[in-house]
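Question (not urgent): is this output format expected?
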Amino acid sequence: MESCHQLKKQYDDCFNHWFSEKFLKGDNDDSACSSLLKTYTDCVQKAMKDNKIEIKDIEVNYLENEDATKTPT
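Got this back:
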């Protein structure tokens, strides 16, 4: 997924600018960064597929995980 790092940075920069310059001033139209988000998301999904990682493998509900609620002994 290292190939996606630059795309993530571009999206993060866009989002941070939108959030501080638009959203916090009342403009909630988030379409400015949508194409960057799509490109980044596509990259991550491709990298996951290439590495045989399924989304269900990383979506863990820790609150329902018995081991996560046990106190260490």
